[in-house]
Here is the input.
Amino acid sequence: MPIKYYLLLLLLSTAVTADRQPFSYPSCKPIPARDVDLVQFAMNLEFLEAEFFLHGAFGKGLDIFAPYLARGGPSPFGGRKARLDHVVQSVIEELGYEEIGHLKAIYEWVGGIPRPFMNISAETFGEVFDMALGRKLMPPFDPYSSSIHFLLASYLLPYVGLTGYVGAIPLLDRFTTKDLVGRLLGVESGQDAIVRTLLYQHSGKKLEPYGITVANLTNKLSWARNHLGKCGHKDEGVVVRKKLGAEGRTRTNVLSANNYSLAYSRTPQEITRIVYGTGNEHVPGGFYPRGANGRIARSFIYKPR
Ligand SMILES: *[C@@H]1O[C@H](CO)[C@@H](O)[C@H](O)[C@H]1NC(C)=O
Ligand SMILES: *[C@@H]1O[C@H](CO)[C@@H](O)[C@H](O)[C@H]1NC(C)=O
Ligand SMILES: *[C@@H]1O[C@H](CO)[C@@H](O)[C@H](O)[C@H]1NC(C)=O
Here is the structure.
């Protein structure tokens, strides 16, 4: 066989293999995508936050507050009213309403996607905490059982949205989407800061009956996210080694940021690896048992042919 054809064949066969097993190594590179797809990808996280905060504060979610935003997507499973003190109750109510606003904004600016199926049961959060601590907590962690529990669970949500927005902005094309995402990012990072500050006030307190401090828990949750994301150190707890604090001079770390005190950035691949709890953007699980929606997240899901 002439070498030319042999090479062509080789090329074709590797192309086919690559197509069958396209996802054998983790990617940390940004993927080029249309503005609308990048913003709609973020909607998955906004849905998760909306349902978790609204259920925690009111015992009901978007199906009651703004059903049209779900665009026919299934109701979430397992959310309930949390036992919250006055301050946390008011804050979570506010965050829940803010999420409705964010979803409306995206819906009106670029169009919405159907709400993905989400599992926000105590058990799902319990599994995240077990994974982060490397042991099965007994009794299982229940985010709905107190203000501290709910804040610790909330620690998991806006931060992921924040890093995703930071990752999306450099890829955006149009002025109007940059404007929208900048404004979403501003409030998302505010939400993260509020949750972290409220947790920081309890950083030395032990979460019983587990005997582990709130500060330590935030570090473990952040390590778990770094581990699942597979793209390095992008996540820090509320009390850290001085080396990781602002200017290397403080252990207090109410904001998670790099050594220039700039926000960390994550790609949609990293984000799905984290929120699926599988470390694999092609294998749904965790909060999204059937995967996230929109073009970007659906393109990751491996469908055998
Ligand atoms: C929700 O997640 C929990 C914990 O993994 C699981 O036990 C339960 O079956 C899930 N429910 C649904 C409806 O997916
Ligand atoms: C976490 O716990 C360890 C002991 O298990 C302790 O040495 C460390 O200082 C704690 N870190 C934080 C941030 O609380
Ligand atoms: C931050 O870290 C990077 C890489 O670790 C290093 O090149 C850079 O000089 C550091 N910058 C500051 C301000 O410490």
The domain at 28-300 is CATH 1.20.1260.10 (Ferritin). The pocket of 2-acetamido-2-deoxy-beta-D-glucopyranose (ligand 1) is lined by residues 77-78, 119, 121, 123-124, 127, 289 (CB under 6 Å). The longest strand covers residues 206-207.
